[in-house]
Specification:
Blueprint (H helix, E strand, L loop, with lengths): L1 E10 L2 E19 L3 H15 L4 E5 L12 H17 L2 E6 L2 E3 L13 E5 L17 E4 L4 H10 L6 H11 L6 E2 L6 E3 L19
Helix pairs in contact: 2-3
Amino acid sequence: ILYSFLIIFRFCGRDAIFIYIHTIMKHFITTYEDNFDFALQTKFNMYQGKGLDPEIIIGEKIDNDKYKRTTVLHWNWIEKVIPKCIESGDDCIVFEDDVRLTGDLNDLKYQENDIIWFGFRRGRLENKNKTITGTQALYFKKEVLLDLYDYFSNYKNKIQIDNLMSKFCVEFSKKYKIQQPKSSYCYEQEHTSLISLDDWSSYTKPK
């Protein structure tokens, strides 16, 4: 998305026009090979509904060896997702492949924040248990990405991605401005999940 602002003011009796270009933002959908058709449906839905054209990142699937149910997404963010974001050279939004957007993404305060966690299930970083569950949609300024990569790569154990992302946000809360809207900007299209063990009924209805 190209964000631009048209500024018009009077100078010496004439109208002066300037166009200020804010940023070009890159969008990604994360998935794995067996779920690729589902990710394509999500991509089509985003294009039809929001005019977005996200790139699909195909990660590894669970093999119960290196890529376990609780670690596969951690590995995929290290090996696939964050490198793709860094390579783009732009600010990025990363969606999971089951996302159905309900909120207007233009309402998000990109200029004021370095990270916006706007797709989630429950939890808040300001709660006593500083954990957000669900990484359905996150925005990152490009300046965040190297720290994110280093933190994910050097973390002592491989853990669930939302737990890890929460820990990163807490640890880097003084360096980066992080926002979580009061409610999620999306819900989840129900499908067969190899990772989530939750009852999906709470997360598959538009809000």
